[in-house]
Amino acid sequence: MTAVLPSLALALLCLLRAGAEVSVQPGFDAEKFVGTWHLAAAVSNCSVFLKMKDGMKSSIITISFMPEGNLAMKLVWPLPDKCQKFELLFQRGGQAGHYMAAQEKRELHVVETDYSHYAIVHQLQQSGQEPSIALQLLTREQDVSPQLLQKFEELIPTVGLTKDMLAVLPKSDQCSQDIS
Questions:
Q1: I want to staple 134 with a disulfide (CB 3.0 to 4.6 A). Which of 16, 40, 44, 109 is the partner?
Q2: What is the pLDDT of residues 63-78, one digit of tens each?
Q3: What phi, psi does 146 have (nearest 5°)?
Q4: Which helix (H) or strand (E) holds 164?
Q5: Given this model, what pLDDT does residue 180 score?
Q6: Each residue of 69-102: b (16+ CB within 10 Å) or e?
Q7: Measuring CA to CA, which residue among 69, 46, 71 is closest to residue 61?
Q8: Are 89 and 70 in contact (CB under 8 A)?
Q9: CA dist 119 to 7, 39, 56, 145, Å?
Q10: CA distances from 117 to 3, 57, 153 (A)
Q11: Rounded to an integer, what distance in angstroms lies between the CA atom of residue 61 and that of residue 34?
């Protein structure tokens, strides 16, 4: 029995590593993905996120694509006293739906989307010893159905995260005038 335990542990580690491979939306269509999205829910192992998640509100994300196929993302985060703006640029990776920001060592995968209601996005950032993993549920409207939230929650363990890392973000109109 004691000889079986190390083998079992090794097999489980291999399964976890295999589960970490992130797929992208088959036939991803960048033109349908552009526009405004709301961050409805997020789960991450990032220590900053985990400290702040209970006070976060839904942010607004605008996606556009550059002529060479790179993804441009503008985010507006509602903070207690202001609206914080960020801009990120991702270069297209090996396939449509996979993007990389080399200077930040960040990868973005559009895991699943129906383009008109929701998108599930996986981000991996290699900084420090522990990689930061995030799974985000984006919606075209701020409302999220219980069925969609359940679908999102079912994906959490497949990327090595746990439900206690989840934040379902309340609606906010605080920064809607700041998006451009």
A1: 44
A2: 999 888 889 999 998 8
A3: -60, -35
A4: none
A5: 53
A6: eebebbbbbbeeeebeeeebebebeeebbbbbbe
A7: 71
A8: yes
A9: 38, 10, 20, 13
A10: 50, 19, 17
A11: 10
